Amino acid sequence: MSENISVANAPKTSTFQMRINPEVKEYVESIYARCGMTLTDAINVFIQQSINVEGMPLIVTQNSKEALKEQAVAILMSELKKGEDTIKTNADWVSEEDILSEFGVNV
After folding, report:
1. Where in 42-92 does DSSP place strands (E)?
2. In CA terms, which of 11, 17, 23, 55 is 20 to 30 Å from 73?
């Protein structure tokens, strides 16, 4: 299957059925309705993301919230390090100490 498949534009000629508790269905429908989506829209988004990443489009663990937080922090720290490295190689780099000394603050 090609990663260029677009769920939104693909012809809809096949059906998919699943059993779900009516209360759960009603609850998730209300969640997605607040986002302007139907349950079908949300499932199609899930399927599209699965195609995009060629796997599960979310982290499934007993502690997904903590895993996502750790992943986000790791990405942020990596990006900060890249930015710092890029700035330090730039000839126009001005250190914090230089700025503070320019204003008469001893460091």
Report:
1. none
2. 55
